Amino acid sequence: MNAAVRAVVRMGIYVGAKVYFIHEGYQGMVDGGDNIKEATWESVSSMLQVGGTVIGSARCKEFRTHEGRLKAAHNLVQRNITNLCVIGGDGSLTGANLFREEWSGLLDELLQQGLIDEEAAQRNSALHIVGMVGSIDNDFCGTDMTIGTDSALHRIIEVVDAIMTTAQSHQRTFVLEVMGRHCGYLALVSALACGADWVFIPEMPPEDGWEDSMCQKLSENRADKKRLNIIIVAEGAIDSHNKAITPDYIKDLVVRCLGFDTRVTILGHVQRGGTPSAFDRILASRMGVEAVLALLEASANTPACVVSLVGNQAVRLPLMECVQMTQEVQKAMDEKKFDEAVRLRGRSFENNLSTYRLLSYRKADSELPNSSFNVAVMNVGAPAAGMNAAVRSAVRVGITEGHKMFAVNDGFEGFYKGQIKEIKWGDVGGWTGQGGSLLGTKRTLPGKHLDKIAEQMRIHNINALLVIGGFEAYVGLLELSSARDKYNEFCVPMVMVPATVSNNIPGSDLSIGSDTALNAITDTCDRIKQSASGTKRRVFIIETMGGYCGYLATVGGLAAGADTVYIYEEPFDIRDLQANVEHLTQKMKTSIQRGLVLRNENCNENFTTDFIYQLYTEEGRGVFDCRKNILGHMQQGGAPSPFDRNFGTKVAAKAMQWITRTLKDSYKGGKNSSPKFDEDETACLLGMRRRAMVFQPVSQLRDETDFVHRIPKEQWWLKLRPLMKILAKYKTSYDVSDSGQLEHAEVSDEFTV
What we know:
CATH topology of the largest domain: Rossmann fold
Cofactor: Mg(2+)
Mean pLDDT: 91
CATH architecture of the largest domain: 3-Layer(aba) Sandwich
Oligomer: single chain
Radius of gyration: 27 Å
Helix content: 40-55%
Distance between the termini: 21 Å
Enzyme class: transferase
Number of strands: 24
EC number: 2.7.1.11
Number of helices: 24
Binding site for ATP: 59-60, 89-92
Low-confidence stretches: 747-753
CATH class of the largest domain: Alpha Beta
GO biological process, one term: fructose 1,6-bisphosphate metabolic process
Structural class: alpha/beta
Number of domains: 4
Largest sheet: 8 strands, mixed
Strand content: 15-25%
């Protein structure tokens, strides 16, 4: 929430508005007085990394009464406030909408009571409202992610990772209760992200007799040498008769039926606290700026709207449509129409649910379709967090669809050396939370070893190939598909899933691993800023990874509140450096006496990190001193973030389903018809484009690629640069063309994470 408050204040000041804080939510609006204070640029400094909300929030009974709203209106009119930005859940937003509908009536009453004059009533005749949804449950329809959800997932996954180590040592079963009274999003996604054995959510009660099936599954897992079982329960979990399913009930059941040592952990308010994740800070900053633009454009007859992100795009949706849809979910659940409730939650929720079912229920061999296809999975390029989650997902989906799955170790190098072996369901257990690449990965390209790779594909009779990796994976796939006319073995379906911290793959807005890297950058910058604010007048220059791609530096800079970010895609010269030093000199005269400068490792061959450090040290002499820090490979390591685990899992599952479809469609005439997969469409990349996941032939992406610098020619995140500069108090022009237009709330039909 604080990132959103900061963005609204700074963008408001930037466009020349007077911005006020209303402390303690609606209570502060009703009480007035010191609760409503003008905000300054500096008053929102250092709050990006703080959890909760700095301006306070409170449930307010008085605002629910007409008298309370009358007082609130009076307090706003006294200060000529006619634009409200409300950050909260559906209750807060419904309240705001009611307030807006009553506004002219409230002004009339204030006039009659002589509390305001005619002129004040004219001046404040219309009230505009924009909402941002802040709720850790992610229970608001029409929006993909609400502010706070990703951070809550971080808290849950930290706990699950810690519990897994103790549970594995002791062969224990753990039952974890997570928040979500009416919405199972947190439970579902954390179950997906840690590979839980069973999950209970309010939208999808288990069928009668679930006790036996659950116990059977737990004992099968133990028999498979799995030393721990994890069961995740949403606090609102119910059975099909609307009876609550509690962690203690589950514990007693497991102890009674199986005699397993079982422990219960209730996470409670831990999930609301802690430092916000990089994703939440970026989401909230983008929404805050969008909210101010929406208020500027509002007229007396535009409906109150909420700003949100769908996929990668800012959108505006009519507030009441979203609220009504959200209420319909609850109604469907009350009427036991659970399939309808899941549908109303949106495509993202449905996708999570179906992926979870695919990956967690192992069918008996007799139930599996027999496809007689062999599919190989490999990692190529540098390691990225989330690769293992993607491999696990691909292997299990492949087995469920009847294929024989093969793992290739150490990328294309392992491929030509014959490091290929069959991989089974149990081999990938517990992989989701592991960082790096368990299969092993290398940057070697296949070009020089095509003969040997073709030979290995012949020996193992490989019918399809799934490559999970970075830029080398993309180039490798191009090389293999270009050699199809020489080698029949390469005429098989091939698909690539982007996984690289640099996020520099053409054809995809996001890649597996970059979210984890952003969190590593953000965490380090938070610590560095803290040390700087203690010493005063200090500027830190931090070098990030990314090759020539400025994604990590730019988006990391937005999440960490950087003053300047140097990247290759936006050329800069000595005059820019001088202006940046001057900007920091001015900043040191205020109460915020620290600076943060990010530099992408390859942004300029002559303006190195050392050069910039020395320049700033010299030019800032007597005003500030400098320190430098090169983050290096800590950006590649670490446990994958919930986002990367989930993204990796879903994208790889989708890629595997594409392989099955492509194989099945072409072998309809029986196995002997042996089709040749030599069309461009059969060698493709699965990427996220704006709002949808799309399969694109790699040959078509060639023209979109700058091969010398290993980056796409057009990159969506460059439009976040002006936003970052505005929030750092630079005078710059902001392109409004990309801001959201008012759309209608509908059950989103795109694949989103």
